[in-house]
Design brief:
5-stranded parallel β-sheet; 18 strands; glycoprotein; Synaptic vesicle glycoprotein 2A; 687 residues; 9-stranded parallel β-sheet; synapse
Length: 687
């Protein structure tokens, strides 16, 4: 703190008065302190004025607004006047940028004085809960689909829409909440978004119909969409330059923890179908609904924790609320100093920071909602202004390519594993030809069999389950079916003579091109009832694979956190993308279930470093009044790319591996190339 620049930066926060009524005296430690507080009516802002009459910058000029008389000074003729005005505007713009850079340096110096300690670590765990809720949201629908499809009688298109709806909701939420956070504050917006997520996640565990469940998951996704852009921006504004990259990378660990939490809860809850109750056939509450309810806990916990934390002081400074910002910075300083055993240390920045009544990102009066939305839209448009246009387009390309390949592959991997499981299951199918069975009672499970041209006379099928059973060109005469639960079971070109079906789910859509002669259906089972655990032999495997895939990112998280501030954001982003691109070519060797699981873990562990670097880079490339707006927009684009990637990659499951490998490799290669064209932000203060 001994160098002249630091002392000069600190003095910009001190009150100066022309009458010298509030003159400060230097302290022993080199900081400039005021001994008395200035009157609110007579205080002036050093952040927006110069130090002499000739060089004075009034508050409007700090915002890029020229003086009213700037166009009048100059020569007599209009050409000279216009030229002088142009020079004045250029000078004002240069002054404004210089002033902004100095203010950013001042804020950095204050954060260094506050130190990194208990306050930042408390905020780390609080915001980590919000990020954890985002990680949980990604996995919820995928884990409940196998059970929900039976509970709600979902068709394949309905299942596909339910799988994608969370990404569509998060896309809308990221854009909306990101824009609002730059206008009404990080903390307040995050509380609103998490509240919406919690409420509709809770409702989704109780609603019965497909449409209502779909709507609740959509709105739940809209709520959680604000988590990532706000959390990273919020936390970064409490971090000094030398700590920012490392600790933002450590924060990414909570997304991994969210995935592990969802996998563990699904593993522990969903297969226990006894954890359920129903009221007739109209209302059913099965174990998968308990899982949905449990997955709302991180979001609720985050809301409770965030209410104890203050707003970002950087946001207050950008909006002219300097006294509020000073109080928060003092709280940060005092909390850290007490925890380190130095409670006597005094926050040396004057209580009265420079005071602007109007600021570049100040609030417009909220008289009408459309005026407020217009503000948000105008702020969004500024990220495409000439100053940020190139960076924004480059970041859009990097975010899109990364998301397209990552989400496409991470969903393609489980689908490929399921496809390999089905192939292996089909290879064990038993086939029976022209069998004749008379006067036999079947009361055991029938599974994975094909019966062709069989004849069944006076046989009883009672209290049993049929799984993956196919009867073709068979005859059933005077047979009795009672209390049958079936999965993937069909009767094709069969004939039923004098046969009774009692309390079964063998609905007519399971009888394909079959004839019914003097046959009767009584008390058919209604709705889609959940089967026993053995219907989902691979349930534990699905959760275990997701658990392993999520846990595999731990080494990548640790490495990126330790190296982020050493090798830089661009090298981390480009290097991880290149290695991920190379790893894609190993997918052609994934011909078994174990090989695909290993490749899933490898790809996830490598690519996570790219995401961490991209998050840090996005935070540091945009100024405070545009940070969450830009981050939210890029995160929304990320979710759009995820929807496209998932739709394209999964369409090639069971057809070819070449196309997904080619698409993923090309996207990652393009992303790594474009990343090197971005400006490096390591060692720079937040704009």
């Amino acid at each position: 703190m001994a160098d002249e620049y630091v002392k000069r930066s600190y003095k910009r926060f001190e009150e100066e008065d022309d009458d010298d009524d509030y003159a400060g005296v230097p302290s022993n430690d080199g900081y400039y302190r005021n001994d008395s507080r200035a009157n609110d009516d007579e205080g002036h802002s050093d952040s927006t004025e110069g130090h002499d009459e000739d060089d004075e910058i009034y508050e409007g000029e700090y915002q890029g607004i020229p003086r009213a008389d700037s166009g009048k000074a100059g020569g007599v003729d209009g050409v000279t006047s216009a030229a002088q005005q142009f020079r004045d505007l250029s000078a004002y713009e240069g002054e404004r940028r210089k002033d902004q850079e100095e203010l950013a340096q001042q804020y950095e110096v204050i954060l260094q004085e506050c130190g990194h300690g208990k306050f930042q670590w408390t905020l780390y765990f609080v915001l980590g809960l919000a990020l954890m809720a985002d990680g949980v949201e990604i996995f919820v629908v995928g884990f409940v689909l196998p059970s929900a499809e039976k509970d709600m009688c979902l068709s394949e298109p309905n299942k596909g829409m339910l799988g994608l709806i969370v990404y569509l909701g998060m896309m809308v939420g990221a854009f909306v909440w990101g824009g609002l956070a730059d206008r009404i504050g990080r903390r307040q917006t995050l509380l609103i978004s998490l509240s919406i997520n919690s409420v509709f996640a809770f409702f989704s565990s109780f609603v019965q119909g497909y449409s209502s469940f779909l709507l609740c998951r959509l709105l739940s996704g809209v709520g959680i969409g604000g988590s990532i852009p706000i959390v990273f921006s919020y936390y970064s504004e409490f971090l000094a330059q030398e700590k920012r990259g490392e600790h933002l990378s450590w924060l990414c660990m909570f997304w991994m923890i969210g995935g592990i939490y969802a996998s563990a809860m699904a593993w522990a809850i969903i297969p226990h179908y006894g954890w359920s109750f129903q009221m007739g056939s109209a209302y059913q509450f099965h174990s998968w609904r308990v899982f949905v309810l449990v997955c709302a806990f991180p979001s609720v916990a985050a809301i409770c924790a965030i209410t104890t934390m203050p707003e970002s002081p950087r946001f207050f400074l950008e909006n002219g609320k300097h006294d509020e910002a000073w109080m928060i910075l003092k709280q940060v300083h005092d909390t850290n100093m007490r925890a380190k055993g130095y409670p006597e240390r005094v926050f040396s920045v004057s209580e009265r920071l420079s005071k602007n009544e109007i600021s570049p990102s100040g609030h417009m009066p909220l008289l009408f909602l459309f005026l407020f939305l217009f503000q948000v839209w105008s702020n969004f448009q500024t990220i495409f202004s000439p100053e940020y246009r190139r960076v924004t387009y480059m970041m859009m390309a990097v975010w899109f390519s990364m998301s397209f390949s990552y989400y496409g592959l991470t969903v393609w991997f489980p689908d490929m594993i399921k496809y390999l499981q089905k192939q292996e299951y089909a290879s064990r199918t038993k086939v029976f030809f022209k069998e004749k069975v008379e006067h036999v009672t079947f009361n055991f499970t029938l599974e994975n069999q094909v019966h062709r041209q069989g004849e069944y006379f006076n046989d009883k099928f009672m209290n049993l389950r049929m799984k993956s059973m196919v009867f073709e060109d068979s005859l059933f005469e005077e047979c009795y079916f009672e209390d049958i639960t079936s999965t993937n079971t069909f009767f094709k070109n069969c004939t039923f003579i004098a046969t009774l079906f009692y309390n079964t789910d063998l609905f007519k859509y399971r009888l394909i091109n079959s004839r019914l002669i003097n046959s009767t259906f009584l008390h058919n089972k209604e709705g889609c009832l959940l089967s026993d655990i053995s219907d989902d032999n691979n349930a534990y495997m699905v959760y275990f694979v997701s658990f392993l895939g999520t846990l595999a990112v731990l080494p990548g998280n640790i490495v990126s956190a330790l190296l982020m501030d050493k090798i830089g954001r661009l090298r981390m982003l480009a290097g991880s993308s290149v290695i991920s691109c190379i790893s894609c070519f190993f997918l052609s060797f994934g011909n078994s279930e174990s090989a695909m699981i290993a490749l899933l873990c490898l790809f996830g562990g490598i690519s996570i470093a790219s995401w961490n670097a991209l998050d840090v880079l996005t935070v540091e490339l945009y100024p405070s009044d545009k940070r969450t707006t830009a981050f939210g927009f890029l995160n929304a684009l990320c979710k759009l790319a995820a929807v496209l990637g998932i739709s394209i990659f999964t369409s090639f499951v069971g057809i070819t591996k070449a196309v997904p490998i080619l698409f993923a490799s090309a996207a990652l290669a393009a992303g790594s190339f474009l990343a090197l064209k971005l400006p490096e932000t390591r060692g720079q203060v937040l704009q």
